[in-house]
């Protein structure tokens, strides 16, 4: 049955591609003069209001500068999870169309759920490389099936359009000793890398420094595309002590007060309406927190992680300015999902290793094949637990649900979910040569799948119908270029599905439903909810009972989307 479904899908796809169009790949190379360089910066597991120019406490002067000189978007979306978002961003498709309807840990042998980037999708790097761009990537990939020492590298970055790559193939990393660390196609560790040898290793700095190195060593006769995929501020909460110390006392007022303060800053920045309220607080109150020192330390570390990323972005900007390419470099900054409420390191203090007595010390040249090594290179057991003080290499904890609620101010829910807190991201677009209204805010509704068609529109390069003899699914996103001059972005609707969480956004209307994991699978646990986003971005007033016709219209549209974009056939069964 599964084989039949796959054959049917491929046959239909090829027929669609052939309908009135040539199947030959023709990517027209444009004259190099005037074509912008492009830097695409993606942060990891951060909330809507975390960076300074969106209301957060972390020091982000470089991102703030890009916002002052560029545009900030208030209603921009991702797909609620790491690897589906990366698939959508890289291809301009819905994540299911790119084969990434769920995670990279499982191949369900269904077209939308391979856990491996589809060859019926083409990446930004593949298209731009064929159009004459130099292509580089530094950071987190997370777009192929969870690798083993013997697995294929067919979907690693160099095989998907990048000329050079430094980073980790896995979805998370110890910041002092990242697992599955690679340079180009070669597995390395922080000590065996012959190219990058800092006095003190920290992964966020390594991502930035290697990005700067690519800029310095590139062929200056070509425009370049560089994808900077940071792991900041994904768990584990780890940062150097001197960076954490800067935030000592900054968060002592606790969850509720800090949320209220953020909302007021967001109003002054013009990011939300003055009538905006906070969503209901989703967690225990600060007054009842029994581990205050450890919880404060986690948020202090989180802020330090964001600041270190911003400092690295500053080094990229400095290099662009020194070489005279800053004005004509198009820079995007966005995030892969909302803030993360996952409880990593809750409970009693304990070693990460299930059998700590059996853990062997790593040799200097041994490779790490996991995102959570249970022992450090100098032989310390890595610890978890609610009272563990975050920061050092021998800790492995998240910052927990209550801080995630602060990070998503003022929105509802978190990563995984498709309520606003799970899918809303800042978007900063900076391009002095192309954007003539610096500092303005854009309220147009957009999605990360729009980044690829935006780039191709700007560089005047066509989206291929076939690539390496594979029929390519037509791009799902639309260009954001009209919004640069504050014109509307024309589309009917945007759709979501992740782990049975479903949503539709059409104009001011949003239809959303929450999924639940039970009995070993995902299941629908709530009916459709309907919200008017023009007055209720925090999703507090469910209008579904009063608007059954709108619910029917949008739910029918969602079903059509699910059929068209390979949500079906689903490993979770028919979603009803």
Secondary structure elements and pairings:
Blueprint: H1 2-18, E1 37-43, H2 61-69, E2 71-77, H3 82-91, H4 124-130, E3 134-140, E4 164-168, E5 181-183, E6 186-188, H5 203-217, E7 224-229, H6 241-245, H7 255-269, H8 292-323, E8 329-335, E9 350-351, E10 383-384, H9 400-407, H10 420-423, E11 424-430, E12 440-447, H11 451-459, E13 466-467, E14 470-471, H12 481-484, E15 494-498, E16 501-506, E17 509-513, E18 515-518, E19 521-524, E20 529-532, H13 548-564
Parallel strand pairs: 1-7, 1-8, 2-12, 3-4, 3-7
Antiparallel strand pairs: 2-11, 4-5, 5-6, 8-11, 9-10, 13-14, 15-16, 16-17, 17-20, 18-19
Short description:
The chain is α/β, with parallel strands linked by helices.
What amount of the residues lies in strands? 15-25%
Q: Report the strand count.
A: 20
Q: Could you describe the largest sheet, including whether it forms a barrel? A: 10 strands, mixed
Oligomeric composition of the shown chains: single chain
- In whole angstroms, the N-to-C terminal distance is 22 Å
Nearest-angstrom radius of gyration? 23 Å
Helical content stands at 25-40%
Q: What gross morphology would you assign?
A: globular
CATH class of the largest domain: Alpha Beta
CATH architecture descriptor name of the largest domain: 3-Layer(aba) Sandwich
Strand order of the largest sheet: 6-5-4-3-7-1-8-11-2-12
Instruction: Please report the number of helical segments.
Output: 13
Question: What is the mean pLDDT?
Answer: 92
Q: Tell me the domain tally.
A: 2
Do you know the CATH topology of the largest domain?
Alkaline Phosphatase, subunit A
């Amino acid at each position: 049955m599964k084989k039949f479904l796959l054959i049917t899908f491929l046959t239909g796809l090829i027929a669609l591609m052939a309908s009135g169009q040539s199947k030959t790949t023709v990517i027209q190379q444009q004259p190099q003069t005037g074509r912008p360089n492009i830097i695409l910066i993606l942060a990891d597991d951060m909330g809507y209001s975390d960076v300074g120019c969106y209301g957060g406490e972390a020091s982000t002067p470089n991102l703030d500068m890009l916002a002052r000189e560029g545009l900030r978007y208030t209603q921009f979306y991702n797909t609620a999870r790491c690897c589906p978002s990366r698939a959508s961003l890289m291809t301009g498709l819905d994540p299911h169309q790119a084969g990434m309807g769920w995670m990279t840990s499982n191949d369900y042998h269904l077209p939308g759920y391979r856990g491996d980037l589809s060859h019926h999708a083409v990446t930004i790097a593949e298209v731009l490389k064929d159009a004459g761009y130099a292509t580089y990537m530094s950071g987190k990939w997370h777009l192929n099936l969870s690798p083993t020492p013997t697995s294929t590298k067919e979907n690693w970055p160099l095989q998907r359009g990048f000329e050079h790559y430094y980073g980790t193939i896995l979805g998370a990393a110890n910041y002092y000793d990242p697992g599955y660390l690679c340079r180009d196609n070669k597995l390395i560790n922080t000590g065996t890398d012959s190219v990058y040898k800092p006095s003190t290793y920290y992964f966020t700095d390594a991502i930035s420094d290697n990005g700067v190195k690519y800029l310095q060593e590139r062929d200056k006769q070509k425009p370049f595309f560089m994808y900077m995929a940071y792991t900041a501020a994904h768990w584990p909460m780890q940062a150097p002590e001197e960076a954490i110390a800067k935030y000592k006392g900054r968060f002592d007022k606790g969850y509720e007060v800090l949320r209220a303060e953020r909302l007021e800053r967001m109003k002054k920045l013009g990011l939300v309406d003055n009538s905006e309220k906070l969503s209901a607080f989703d967690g225990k109150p600060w007054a009842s927190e029994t581990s205050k020192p450890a919880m404060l330390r986690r948020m202090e570390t989180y802020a330090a992680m964001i600041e270190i990323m911003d400092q690295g972005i500053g080094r990229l900007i400095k290099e662009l300015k020194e070489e005279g390419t800053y004005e004509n470099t198009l820079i995007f900054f966005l995030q892969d999902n909302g803030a993360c409420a996952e409880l990593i390191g809750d409970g009693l203090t304990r070693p990460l290793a299930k059998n700590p007595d059996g853990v062997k010390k790593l040799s200097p040249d041994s490779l790490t094949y996991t995102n959570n090594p249970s022992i450090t290179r100098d032989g310390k057991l890595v610890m978890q637990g609610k009272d563990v003080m975050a920061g050092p290499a021998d800790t492995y904890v998240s910052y927990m649900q209550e801080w995630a609620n602060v990070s998503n101010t003022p929105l509802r829910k978190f990563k995984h979910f498709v309520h606003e807190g799970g899918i809303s991201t800042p978007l900063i677009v900076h391009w002095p040569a192309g954007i003539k209204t610096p500092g303005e805010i854009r309220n147009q509704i957009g999605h990360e799948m729009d980044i690829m068609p935006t780039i191709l529109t700007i560089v005047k390069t066509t989206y291929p119908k076939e690539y390496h003899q594979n029929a390519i699914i037509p791009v799902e996103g639309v260009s954001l270029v009209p919004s640069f001059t504050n014109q509307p972005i024309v589309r009917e609707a945007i759709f979501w599905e992740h782990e049975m969480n479903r949503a539709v956004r059409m104009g001011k209307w949003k239809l959303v439903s929450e999924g639940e994991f039970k009995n070993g699978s995902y299941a629908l646990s709530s009916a459709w909810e309907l919200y008017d986003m023009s007055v209720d971005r925090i999703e507090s007033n469910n209008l579904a009972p009063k608007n059954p016709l709108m619910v029917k219209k949008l739910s029918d549209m969602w079903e059509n989307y699910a059929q068209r974009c390979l949500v079906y056939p689903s490993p979770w069964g028919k979603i009803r």
